[in-house]
Design goal:
It catalyses: a (3R)-hydroxyacyl-[ACP] + UDP-N-acetyl-alpha-D-glucosamine = a UDP-3-O-[(3R)-3-hydroxyacyl]-N-acetyl-alpha-D-glucosamine + holo-[ACP]. The chain is α/β, with parallel strands linked by helices. The chain has helices at about 195-200, 205-220, 225-235, 240-250, and strands spanning about 5, 10, 15, 20, 25-30, 30-35, 40, 45, 50, 55-60, 65, 80-85, 90, 95, 105-110, 115, 120, 125, 130, 135-140, 145, 150, 155, 160, 165-170, 180-185, 190-195. The protein starts with a strand and ends in a 16-residue tail after the last helix.
């Protein structure tokens, strides 16, 4: 049995799973689907063509599925927001669906924490097990891998890609792509090193971390152009995490922001 407050407005056509809780004065639109066990606190708005999975918790005053902040958006466009399972979406967050000029979907995975005032704009793709601290703003078409941590008050520019296992320091400004397993910070954000704390938490095999340390030195000591160094690593290193990092660098469209933090052997 679901628990729906008597002041909540559930429009005809909305589909609610089992054991869903809807708080006071919350509005659920006609094209919304909410999975089993999800909790929506008071004064939230869930609208548009929005699908929400199981066991999420959406806190009060969140706005989920409202039209994109895109002047080109046509209200007749068939766009969508898809949210997975076990996410925590805190107060005053704003999530938008896609736009027809993009791939028309915003997609959010599982087990993520979106702290207060987080904004996820149109056509973003977000993986699993990530943390977006207070005031993080993702512009349109941003892509984030799994196990990403973005520090508070950090904006991320349109079309940027954030790799798996990345940590971005608070109050940074991300304008280019950040490779997997790296630590970035600053305004504008630069790759400073590996996210060693995250790696040690997630990787049991120390050899994998050592392989990534070697790969980082190869990429960013500037003995070779970045793309050439990435290609050599991808072709010659058998470690799957190194290949993931190298492939990301090879495929970047916005470039990799870094400073020379590793000295060459002859310095």
């Amino acid at each position: 049995m679901s628990n729906i407050h008597k002041t909540a407005i559930i429009e005809d056509g909305a589909i609610l799973g089992e054991n869903v809780t809807i708080g006071a004065y919350t509005i659920i639109g006609k094209n919304v689907k909410i999975g089993d066990g999800t909790i929506v606190d008071s004064h939230a708005l869930i609208t548009g063509k929005t699908t929400i999975g199981k066991n999420n918790h959406i806190f009060s005053h969140a706005t989920i599925g409202s039209i994109p902040q895109d002047l080109k958006f046509n209200p007749n466009d068939d766009v969508e927001l898809i949210i997975g399972d076990n996410n925590k979406i805190r107060e005053y967050t704003l999530f938008n669906p896609g736009t027809i000029t993009g791939h028309s979907k915003t997609v959010i995975g599982n087990n993520n924490l979106f702290m207060g005032y987080t904004h996820v704009a149109h056509d973003c793709i977000i993986g699993n097990n990530s943390i977006f601290a207070n005031g993080v703003t993702l512009a349109g078409h941003v892509e984030c891998g799994d196990f990403v941590v973005i520090g508070g008050l950090t904006p991320i520019h349109q079309f940027c890609k954030i790799g798996t296992g990345v940590m971005v320091g608070g109050a940074s400004a991300v304008a280019q792509d950040i490779p997997p397993f790296c630590l970035a910070e600053g305004n504008k954000a630069l790759v400073k090193g590996l996210n060693l704390v995250g790696l040690r938490r997630r990787m049991e095999n120390r050899a994998d971390i050592d392989a990534l340390k070697h790969a980082f030195r190869v990429l960013f000591n500037m003995k070779k152009p970045l793309q050439e160094a990435a290609f050599d690593l991808y072709e010659n290193d058998k470690n799957p995490y190194v290949k993931e990092m190298a492939k990301f660098v090879m495929d970047t469209k916005r470039g990799i922001p870094f400073e020379r933090v590793v000295k060459s052997e002859d310095e």
